[in-house]
Write the structure tokens for this entry.
Amino acid sequence: MNPRAIDVQLLLVFDALMSERHVTRAAQSIGLSQPAVSHALARLRDRFGDPLLVRTARGMEPTERALELIGPARDAIRQVQDVFLSRPDFDPARSQESFVIRMGDANEFLLLPSILAELEARAPSVSLIVRHLSPTDTIKALEDGSIDFAVSAFLSHPKSIRSSSLMKDRMVCATRHDHPSTRRRLTVDTFLNLRHIRVVQHAGDVRFVDEHLQARGLRRNVAATIPHWLVALHSVTKSGLAMAIPERMARHFDRDGSLALRRIPVGGAVFDWQIYWHRRNDAVTSQVWMRKLVSEICARLEAP
């Protein structure tokens, strides 16, 4: 196909229609008239030999072909935007960019204060939006561009997603410092029989400890399941409960010595916190700068 025959506006219309699922709202979102969007939809249907969006009792719904096309279409839109809007001379001191980051509350607690302090000193007009997403939704958000990068661990991802190690950590068992179990060695049986607060931030996510237990046919004695590491850790200091938690976060929290932290006998291997991004952002200067900033902060945490 002759590249001159490609109409980028058709991609914009397709993106708007897939987002809004309504011709009039799609037209308003991209500043076109309703007839213009209807005409563009007719051209798209002719080009792809598929209705793309069909009317149902719930409104307009995408066809399987439309769902296949929207990812590549949005990639193409972003690449065109990068060509015309990219700023290779990125100056953090003058930039007003906003970055969207995926973090859980463990890494928010550990990293965000330092990240915000560095931005205040080096990039005072740069802003952050922090979101927390499930592992699956994190990969989807990286692919569709709704987040710029993610800080997490054990994410299964396609080749389109890059990752780099930030710092090492391990899971430890946290209890109140005077918990009766601290008087004896923490065996597998002892660990399993403690009454646990389990942190599950998204249904079905068994990373870190529970996947290791499941592989061995083992289960913890769970007294409560909650979605936030910080609340769980605070609860441990006020009760006879235990929890498995990343060691770095626990030590950062435990400034007054109220916790006993012991290596757990199953699922306590060292792991890497990673930073994840989409390959289309490999060389985007602002993104490279931001990833480097996070890496530098983690390197300081790793220093003896």
